[in-house]
Amino acid sequence: MKSLDEARALDAADPLRTYRDAFDLPAGEIYLDGNSLGALPRATVARLAGTVRGEWGRDLIRSWNKAGWIDAPARVGGKIAQLIGAQAHEVLVADSTSVNLFKLLAAAVKAQPGRRVILSEPGNFPTDLYVAQGVAETLGAELRLAPREAIVEALDEDVAVLLLTHVHYQSAAMFDMAAITRAAQAKGALVLWDLSHSAGAVAVDLNAANADLAVGCGYKYLNGGPGAPAFLFVAERHQAALRSPLSGWMGHAAPFDFGDDYAPGEGISRFLCGTPPILGLAALEEGVDLLLGADLPALYAKGQALCSAFIDVVEDRCAGLGLTLATPREGATRGSHVSFRHEQGWPIMQALIARGVIGDFRAPDILRFGFTPLYVGFEDVWNAAEILRDILTTGAWDDPAFHARAAVT
């Protein structure tokens, strides 16, 4: 992409261009942070108003049956299943990504007698490593780390479960899910994939990869809103054997019999725990429905085209200005975000945000830009790169106001 005119021509030919109007985006901003928080679908506002005023306000407790609140975790999970190559009864919406990681890691370790190692990579998303540390301490297991290029060699008869993020949160580097899964299973280990930067952004086919377990969040590319509930996947073949360590009443075989003793529910339902967050589920369902209405192959192809265009334009227009690409060039090995390193990454990102280009910063030096194909276009790519160039060439980032650190980066 060599010019603004070329960018506009690509947008004019884009079959997904009308989806931008489905989102309530502020005028004059280029929103490249869908990999941290997806934009607000317009339909979500009306859905939440109806859920609050009608289902909660008017129908009150009756809505657990009348409005299907009690079935929402399985219903929305079944929809997400269509985005990740799973069967409807293999996916459930519940809790947060961190809680779901704890549930599935603990279940996997306990189901592998004699195997006490959780294997992961250094630099994995921190919550994955923190939760794995907690599970290891709770169960008397061990968390072992190996570089991603040595993951397969690190698999041995002590590994109970391999925990990996499909698309890396910083670099966007993507594992070959099928190949890694085969290698782990050949050594007798289960594999738990974190799909937080994958679901709704890149093609995922869990069943084709013979995946065992997976988790993912709802607030990024699924556009479920801040704090949206997460999802978990348990392959059908494992559902009877695995048991959640959080034996809450919603995971009981007969929760409304109110018995004193716990009996796990059938299938995926045993991985429920507490009362479902109905407002969060309603918002998430709207975001998922919007994605399911799109041409998914076209969506994934556009995401990669946007990333490639941004890399090309930035490297051309910002050459010699201190940026280093931290993301794979090859689309087949990359998610739907692009990261550049710069020693002044934090103030540069603050300067970008002040100019209406909303990305984020990841320590120690990463400028990260997420490309959500439903509402980001090629003109956005060009303009964002031009603003970045202006900030770097003028030194506008070196304003004291841009150096002050905020709680959230």
TrEMBL record:
Pathway: Amino-acid degradation; L-kynurenine degradation; L-alanine and anthranilate from L-kynurenine: step 1/1; Cofactor biosynthesis; NAD(+) biosynthesis; quinolinate from L-kynurenine: step 2/3. Keywords: Hydrolase, Pyridine nucleotide biosynthesis, Pyridoxal phosphate. One of its GO terms (molecular function) is kynureninase activity. It comes from the Bacteria. InterPro entries: Kynureninase (IPR010111), PyrdxlP-dep_Trfase (IPR015424), PyrdxlP-dep_Trfase_major (IPR015421), PyrdxlP-dep_Trfase_small (IPR015422). Its cofactor is pyridoxal 5'-phosphate. Pfam families: KYNU_C. The modification N6-(pyridoxal phosphate)lysine is found at K220. It catalyses: L-kynurenine + H2O = anthranilate + L-alanine + H(+); 3-hydroxy-L-kynurenine + H2O = 3-hydroxyanthranilate + L-alanine + H(+). Its EC number is 3.7.1.3. Pyridoxal 5'-phosphate binds at T97, S98, F125, P126, T127, D128, T165, D194, H197, Y219, W249, T275. The keyword Lipid metabolism does not apply. Belongs to the kynureninase family. Homodimer. Catalyzes the cleavage of L-kynurenine (L-Kyn) and L-3-hydroxykynurenine (L-3OHKyn) into anthranilic acid (AA) and 3-hydroxyanthranilic acid (3-OHAA), respectively. PANTHER family: KYNURENINASE. NCBIfam families: kynureninase (TIGR01814). This is Kynureninase. It comes from Sphingomonas oryzagri. The gene is kynU.
